[in-house]
Design goal:
Blueprint (H helix, E strand, L loop, with lengths): L1 H9 L1 H15 L21 H13 L4 E8 L6 H15 L4 E5 L17 H4 L10 H10 L15 E7 L3 H14 L6 H37 L5 E6 L1 H35 L3 H23 L11 H24 L5 H28 L7 H21 L2 H9 L9 H16 L1 H20 L16 H12 L4 E8 L36 H15 L4 E5 L1 H11 L7 H10 L2 H8 L9 E8 L8 H14 L8 E4 L1 H35 L2 H24 L11 H24 L6 H27 L8 H22 L1 H8 L8
Antiparallel strand pairs: 1-3, 1-4, 2-3, 5-7, 5-8, 6-7
Keywords: Cell membrane, Coiled coil, Membrane, Transmembrane, Transmembrane helix
Pfam family, one: MMPL
Subcellular location: Cell membrane
Length: 818
C-alpha cells in the first residue's frame, strides 16, 4: 500500500485520467439504472400466493384496473351528472392501454318493470333507456347487491367508474415459462440461458408498461381536471398507487437529494472552514455513487421502493470514509509542512481501519440476502458492492484530488466545535457510572419497545392526508368498498358426494333444454345446494368489519332472488338463468366468479385499508381457520390470494428475515472483530454500542407504535452498518494510544476523542442533519427512514464516544498483548 500511495501522489494526473477513462467506459450503464415499478417488485421470491394470484387472472379474467370516483355537486342521477360520466367514460376508452370502462350507465335495470327470469335477455334497460324513471332507478341501483359499494355508494352520492387495463399476453406467457423453468431441480446450461433471456424480456416489458401506465394515469388526471366544476373526482387502484409511489420516490430523490447535498456542504464547511474540504468529500461521494450506479446498470439491477435510498446511503457512507481521512490529514498537518507527507501518512494510517470499516459495513448490508424478497436481496447486494467502490475511490480518487488541489498544510477549524468531542471524553472519564446507568435504562426501554413491535400497517398511512392518493383511497374505503383485493378460490371437493346419487328410471331432463353451449359444466357449484353453501361463506366475509365489498356468484344469485319475488332459485331456474343471461352480463356476473366447468369459484373481496382495527395477519389467519372449522372446507380445497395477501406475506417475511439478518450481522461482525483484535473481551466491548444502536431503533419504533414496514424494517441493519464504522475507527485509535505506555487510560480516551472523536462527530452530525431533510417528504416511509437513520447515527455517535471508551477504560483494554 505504501508503494501504491506513493505512486498516486507522484502521478495524480495519470491516476485521475485512468479513473475518468474507466468512468466513461462504464457510464452508459447509467441508462439502465432505474426504478422498478413492476407489480412483482415487492413480492417474495417463489411466493405461492403470487403464483395463485397470476393463475386467478388467467382463469377469471384480468383484474388490473383503475377506479375513478365521482361525487357530483348536483344530484348523481341528474342529466348533467350522467352526461359527465358518459363523456369521461367514452374519452377514457379511446386512451391507449384501456380495455374497457364500466360506469353506472352500463348497469342493467331489472325493475322498470320487473323482468321475469325467462325474459332477461330481451327486456333489460339502462339509465340511458328512454322512459326510465331515474328516481326509481336510483333506489334500485343502491339496493342492488352487486352494484352497491361497487359502482355506487350506499348514500347514492358517489359513483365509481372501473377502467380495465389491457393485459399483455406475452408477459403472462413469459411468467408461465419462468415458473415452469424454476420448478426444474437442476437447470441445464441451455435452460439457465433461456431463464436469463426470459427474465430480461420480463424486465423490459415491466419498464415499458411502467412508462405506459404512468402516461395513461397522467392522461386520465388531465381529463378529470377538466371536470372539476362538475364535482369531486379521484383516481384510485393498485396500478395508480404503484405509479404514484414511484413518482413520490423520484421526486424525493431529486428534491431532497439536492437538499441533503446542500446541508452536507454547509455542515462540512462549518467543520473544516475550507472550500476544498467541502468539494473533496462531495466529489468523492458523487464519483463513487455514479460509478456504482453504472456498474449496477450494466448488471441490470434496478432500484425499488425498498432500495430507493441506495444513492443517499452510499453518499453518506462514502462521505464518512472521506471525513475520517481528512480529519487525520488535518491532525498530521499540524506536525509537518509537507502536503505530500501529510497525505501519505494519513492514507497509511487510515487504510486499515477504513478497509475493515468498509468490509464490516458491507457484511451488514449483505446480511439482507437472508430475506426472501428480491428487492431487499438486491438492496443488500447493491450496498455491499457500493462499499467496495467507496473504499477504492477513497484511496485512489481522493488522494489524487487532494494532491492536485491542496497546496498548504495550514488548516483551521472552529474551536468551540472541536471542544465537543473533548467534552464528551471528559464526561466519560468523570461520569462513567452515570453513563453505564443511562445505557442500562436505555436497554430496558429498548427491550420493552422491541416487545411491542408489530409487522402491520395501514397502507393509506404511507401518504400525507393532503395528497390526492390518500383522499382517493379514503373515499374508496368509506363509500365504495375498499382498494386492496383479497380473493378466495374454492375448488369442488376431491370427492363429490353427489356423484354417489343415482336415480332409477328415465332421466326427465336427459336432454337439458337450458344447457349453456359455452360451458362444459360439471355442475358442482352451479346448483342450489352448493350455491347456498357459497352464499353462507360470502355473507360471513361480508360481516367482517375490516372487509369492504364482497363479490361472488352469490351476489348474482341474491339479485336473481330479488327478481324471483324473493324466492330461492331451484336447479331448473338456475339452468334457465344461465341460458338467458346476455353475454356481457354473463361475463361480468358469472364467469368472473365461476370457471367454465363449474369446478372452481372465486370470492373477490376488498380490504378496508383505512380500518383502525386492521391487522392483516390476524385477519387472514381468522379467515383460513374459519373456512376449515366453520364451513368444513378441506385445507387444500381453497386458496387465499390477492394484493392484501401478497403484501402481508412480504411484511411477515421482512420481519423474519430481519431477525435472521441481524443475527448474521452481529455474528459476522463479531468474527471480523475477533480476527482483527484477537480478543474476545474487545470483541464483546465493540459489539455493545452496535447492539445499543440497532436495539434503540427497533425499540423506539415499538414505543411510538410505529409498525415495521418496507422501509423502517431495514433501518436496523443499515444503522449497524454505519455504527460499526465508528466503533472500528475508535478502537483502532485507542489501540494506537494504548501502545504508548507513558500515558494513562484517561489520557488515551482524551487523545482518541481529540482525533477520531472529531471525525465521528463530524460525520454523525453532518449525515444526521442531511437525513433530517427527508422529514419534509409527503411519502411517510421516506420520512420515517430519514428520521430514524438520523436517530440511529446520533445514538451511535453518543454510544461510541461515551459507552465504548468507558468500557475500554474500565476493562483496561489493550493494556497487555491481546
Amino acid at each position: 500500500m505504501h508503494k501504491i500511495f506513493r505512486f498516486i501522489l507522484n502521478s495524480p494526473s495519470k491516476v485521475m485520467f485512468c479513473i475518468v477513462i474507466i468512468f466513461l467506459a462504464t457510464s452508459f450503464g447509467l441508462k439502465n439504472f432505474k426504478l422498478d415499478a413492476s407489480s412483482d417488485a415487492l413480492v417474495i421470491e417463489g411466493d405461492e400466493a403470487f403464483k395463485i394470484y397470476r393463475e386467478t387472472g388467467k382463469i377469471f379474467g384480468n383484474s388490473d384496473f383503475l377506479i375513478i370516483t365521482f361525487t357530483p355537486f348536483s344530484d348523481l342521477f341528474s342529466a348533467e351528472s350522467l352526461s359527465t360520466i358518459k363523456n369521461i367514460g367514452e374519452t377514457i376508452e379511446t386512451f391507449a392501454g384501456v380495455q374497457s370502462v364500466l360506469t353506472i350507465l352500463d348497469a342493467p335495470i331489472f325493475f322498470q318493470p320487473k323482468v321475469p327470469l325467462a325474459d332477461l335477455m330481451d327486456s333489460l334497460k339502462t339509465l340511458e333507456t328512454e322512459g326510465v324513471d331515474l328516481n326509481a332507478a336510483k333506489t334500485e341501483i343502491i339496493n342492488n347487491p352487486v352494484y352497491s359499494e361497487l359502482i355506487i355508494s350506499p348514500s347514492g352520492n358517489t359513483t365509481a367508474m372501473q377502467v380495465t387495463l389491457d393485459e399483455n399476453k406475452l408477459y403472462r406467457d413469459l411468467i408461465d415459462q419462468r415458473y415452469n423453468l424454476l420448478e426444474i431441480p437442476n437447470l441445464l446450461d441451455s435452460q439457465q440461458k433461456e431463464l436469463n433471456q426470459i427474465n430480461r424480456q420480463i424486465s423490459q416489458i415491466n419498464d415499458e408498461e411502467a412508462a405506459e401506465r404512468a402516461e395513461l394515469i397522467s392522461q386520465i388526471r388531465q381529463l378529470l381536471r377538466k371536470y372539476d366544476a362538475a364535482g369531486t373526482l379521484f383516481l384510485g387502484g393498485a396500478s395508480m398507487i404503484a405509479t404514484d409511489m414511484m413518482s413520490f420516490i423520484k421526486s424525493d430523490l431529486a428534491i431532497f437529494g439536492m437538499g441533503v447535498a446542500i446541508v452536507f456542504c454547509l455542515m462540512l464547511y462549518l467543520f473544516f472552514q475550507s472550500f476544498w474540504f467541502v468539494v473533496l468529500p462531495i466529489s468523492n461521494a458523487f464519483v463513487t455513487t455514479a460509478f456504482t450506479a453504472s456498474i449496477l446498470g450494466l448488471m441490470d439491477w434496478k432500484i425499488s421502493v425498498i432500495s430507493s435510498n441506495f444513492i443517499a446511503l452510499l453518499l453518506i457512507l462514502t462521505i464518512s470514509l472521506t471525513v475520517h481521512v481528512l480529519v487525520r490529514f488535518t491532525e498530521i498537518s499540524k506536525k509537518t509542512d509537507s502536503v505530500d507527507e501529510a497525505i501519505e501518512q494519513a492514507l497509511n494510517q487510515m487504510v486499515m481501519p477504513c478497509l475493515f470499516a468498509a468490509l464490516t459495513t458491507a457484511i451488514a448490508f449483505l446480511s439482507l440476502i437472508m430475506g426472501d424478497i428480491k428487492p431487499v436481496i438486491e438492496f443488500g447486494k447493491m450496498m455491499s458492492v457500493g462499499m467496495i467502490f467507496a473504499f477504492i475511490f477513497t484511496f485512489t480518487f481522493l488522494p489524487s484530488a487532494m494532491k492536485l488541489v491542496i497546496k498548504s498544510t495550514n488548516t483551521y477549524s472552529l474551536k468551540f466545535i472541536d471542544e465537543i468531542p473533548t467534552a464528551l471524553g471528559r464526561f466519560t472519564i468523570n461520569q462513567g457510572m452515570k453513563i453505564l446507568s443511562l445505557f442500562a435504562i436505555l436497554s430496558i426501554l429498548m427491550i420493552y419497545g422491541i416487545s411491542k413491535l408489530e409487522v402491520e400497517n395501514r397502507f393509506i398511512d404511507y401518504f400525507s392526508p393532503e395528497t390526492e392518493i390518500y383522499q382517493g383511497m379514503l373515499k374508496l374505503d368509506q363509500e365504495l368498498g375498499g382498494t386492496a383485493t383479497l380473493d378466495i378460490l374454492i375448488d369442488q371437493p376431491s370427492e363429490d358426494p353427489n356423484d354417489d346419487l343415482s336415480f332409477d328410471g328415465d332421466d326427465l331432463f336427459e336432454d337439458d333444454l337450458f344447457e349453456d353451449d359455452s360451458s362444459n359444466a360439471s355442475g358442482y357449484w352451479w346448483n342450489a345446494t352448493s350455491l347456498a353453501k357459497l352464499e353462507v361463506i360470502h355473507d360471513y366475509l361480508d360481516d367482517i368489519p375490516e372487509m369492504g365489498k364482497v363479490l361472488s356468484v352469490a351476489s348474482g344469485i341474491k339479485l336473481a332472488r330479488m327478481i324471483n319475488d324473493d324466492n330461492d332459485l331451484n336447479d331448473l331456474e338456475l339452468a334457465l338463468l344461465r341460458s338467458v343471461l346476455p353475454e356481457d352480463i354473463k361475463e361480468t356476473l358469472l364467469y368472473s366468479y365461476i370457471n367454465q366447468d363449474d369446478s372452481k369459484v372465486r370470492i373477490s373481496a376488498r380490504v378496508l385499508e383505512s380500518a383502525q382495527t386492521l391487522n392483516r395477519k390476524e385477519l387472514l389467519e381468522k379467515i383460513n381457520f374459519d373456512l376449515v372449522d366453520k364451513f368444513n372446507l378441506e385445507s387444500d380445497q381453497f386458496k387465499v390470494t390477492g394484493l392484501a395477501v401478497l403484501y402481508n406475506n412480504m411484511l411477515q417475511s421482512l420481519f423474519s428475515s430481519q431477525i435472521k439478518s441481524l443475527g448474521l450481522v452481529f455474528a459476522a461482525i463479531g468474527l471480523m472483530l475477533l480476527i482483527i483484535f484477537k480478543s474476545i473481551k474487545i470483541t464483546l466491548i465493540a459489539l455493545t454500542p452496535n447492539l445499543i444502536t440497532a436495539g434503540s431503533v427497533l425499540g423506539f419504533l415499538g414505543i411510538l407504535n410505529i409498525p415495521l414496514d418496507i422501509m423502517t424494517i431495514t433501518v436496523a441493519a443499515i444503522s449497524v452498518g454505519m455504527a460499526v464504522d465508528n466503533t472500528i475507527h475508535y478502537l483502532y485509535r485507542y489501540k494506537t494510544e494504548a501502545a504508548n505506555i507513558n500515558i494513562t487510560n484517561d489520557q488515551r480516551v482524551l487523545n482518541s476523542h481529540d482525533s477520531v472523536g472529531r471525525a465521528v462527530f463530524y460525520t454523525a452530525t453532518t449525515i444526521a442533519a442531511g437525513f433530517s431533510i427527508f422529514a419534509l417528504s409527503s411519502f411517510t416511509p421516506t420520512v420515517l427512514f430519514g428520521l430514524f437513520t438520523a436517530f440511529a447515527l446520533m445514538i451511535s455517535f453518543f454510544a461510541s464516544l461515551t459507552l465504548l471508551p468507558f468500557l475500554l477504560k474500565f476493562s483496561n483494554a489493550f493494556s497487555t498483548q491481546e
